[in-house]
Automatic annotation (TrEMBL):
Domain of life: Bacteria
Source organism: Slackia piriformis YIT 12062
Recorded family membership: Belongs to the nucleobase:cation symporter-2 (NCS2) (TC 2.A.40) family. Azg-like subfamily.
Broad class of the protein's primary localization: membrane
A single cellular component GO annotation: plasma membrane
Keyword check for Membrane: yes
Pfam families found in the cross-reference section: Xan_ur_permease
Subcellular location: Cell membrane
Lineage: Bacteria, Bacillati, Actinomycetota, Coriobacteriia, Eggerthellales
Membrane topology: Multi-pass membrane protein
Statement: the UniProt record of this protein carries the keyword Manganese: no
Protein name: Xanthine/uracil/vitamin C permease
Entry keyword set: Cell membrane, Membrane, Transmembrane, Transmembrane helix, Transport
GO molecular function, a single term: purine nucleobase transmembrane transporter activity
């Protein structure tokens, strides 16, 4: 085990990997509660959606650990899983959920081809170092914002868009307790600090009514969503994937999903790499090719499983901060997701309030990259600024990266330094521009 995962070589221990894996899982376990209802709205039976979500995440997280040997967990991505029911399956030109999964499957195949051709890695190499660091910083703020929003510490407001939540509510009190625990344990350098804060906050939430005790302990499996793109659409004799050729408008969704997966992954991998010690001072990720290959295959696998697009999870940064350095932590996450398929009600006890502290501390730690941005030159500083601001403000890693890419190219043009921009940066900026125009 030590030689296969290179545990000692990366200055880790089996204990660190176990704690890191458990921390990552608890930080991202909300997907088990969130994804199935969204897919159910698209027409997938709830139990089938739950089975697909858990087993899809388990399979691709394990593959990432075994192939890339990095502590990057995967599951159904937020964003695309909402577009599937509310735009593809319930919009003006609604399609069957099997067709929606075929769109995801095709997008995954396309992005896998781009990775195998070296394009995805080449785009990452073309990004200036300051922008790479800015992406990680923006994701840090995003992670912290997710924790604050999910716990009710930050709420929507008609007048100001955002406001402080009710500090007297039980959910906010548990969130504040989780932040206090996470910070204090970090100060005391307690091993497994983030994991301990999640567990303690979950226990404190029981008498306050925030931690929901399960009414049942297990659930059955339903594989009816598997191989969705190759299932026949009810009432027809047409395979779902064939509809993409019959309805060219669906190719716009393929492009949209591709942009989201392409750049969300790029940002997340850089963020996890900086916390997991496999990125250099310029934000270049070591052994990036196998990571991107597995992530691309995961997108296609998500469509095949019927789980929406499976992608790397930014909450993996929590595990990296907790000490995870190898793919062994992924095996821990994968085992827990398999258990989730049977014990989802138990995992549901961990609330967003309980994980708030861990996510806020991770966000704080990721801001250290601010010192690596060249703030003395506007061609690097302003794109970095709009990237950092755009990711949390638009609730989208892709949007923030797009703002940064476009502004970098525009500034270079007006400086008379357009030739300094690498060709693939122009291509990526143009693709973002098309995406924003098409909406």
């Amino acid at each position: 085990m030590n030689s296969f995962f290179k545990i000692a070589e990366r200055n880790s221990t089996v204990g660190n990997e176990l704690v890191g894996g458990l921390t990552t899982f608890l930080a991202m376990a909300y997907i088990v509660a969130v994804n199935p209802p969204l897919l159910e709205a698209a027409g997938i039976p709830y139990q089938a959606a739950l089975t697909a979500t858990c087993l899809g995440a388990a399979a691709m997280t394990a593959v990432m650990g075994l192939v890339a040997n990095r502590p990057i967990a995967l599951a159904s991505g937020m964003g695309i899983n909402a577009i599937i029911p509310f735009t593809l399956c319930m919009g003006e030109h609604a399609v069957d959920w099997r067709v929606a999964m075929a769109v995801v499957f095709v997008e995954g195949i396309v992005i896998l081809v781009l990775v195998l051709c070296g394009l995805r890695t080449a785009v990452m190499d073309a990004i200036p170092a300051s922008l790479r660091h800015a992406i990680a910083i923006g994701i840090g703020l995003f992670v912290a914002f997710i924790g604050l929003q999910g716990s009710g510490l930050v709420v929507s407001n008609e007048s100001t868009l955002l406001a402080l939540g009710d500090v007297h509510s039980p959910t906010v009190l548990v969130a504040l307790f989780s932040i206090l625990c996470a910070v204090v344990l970090q100060v005391l350098r307690v091993k497994g600090a983030l994991l301990i804060s999640i567990v303690l906050a979950t226990l404190v939430g029981i008498p306050l009514g925030v931690t929901s005790l399960p009414t049942q302990w297990s659930a059955g499996l339903d594989f009816s969503a598997f191989a969705a793109p190759f299932q026949t659409i009810p009432g027809t004799d047409t395979m779902a994937i064939v509809q993409i050729a019959l309805q060219p408008a669906l190719l716009l969704f393929v492009f949209s999903f591709l942009m989201s997966d392409f750049f969300d992954t790029m940002g997340t991998v850089v963020a996890v790499a900086e916390q997991g010690d496999f990125a250099d001072k310029d934000g270049n990720v070591k052994d990036i090719q196998p990571i991107l290959t597995v992530d691309s295959a995961a997108a296609a696998a998500g469509g095949f499983f019927g789980a929406s697009s499976i992608t790397v999870f930014v909450e993996s940064t929590a595990g990296a901060v907790a000490g995870a350095r190898t793919g062994l932590s992924n095996i821990v996450v994968a085992i827990l997701f398999v258990a989730c398929a049977f014990l989802a009600p138990v995992i549901g006890m961990v609330s967003a309030s309980a994980t708030c502290g861990a996510l806020v501390v991770v966000g704080y730690l990721m801001l250290s990259g601010v010192a690596n941005v060249d703030w003395s030159k506007i061609e690097f500083a302003f794109p970095a600024f709009v990237t950092i601001l755009g990711i949390p403000m638009t609730y989208s890693i892709t949007n923030g990266i797009g703002f940064g890419f476009i502004s970098y190219c525009v500034i270079k043009v007006f400086q008379g330094k357009a030739r300094e921009v690498r060709p693939l940066m122009w291509v990526a900026a143009a693709a973002f521009l098309v995406m924003f125009i098409l909406g």
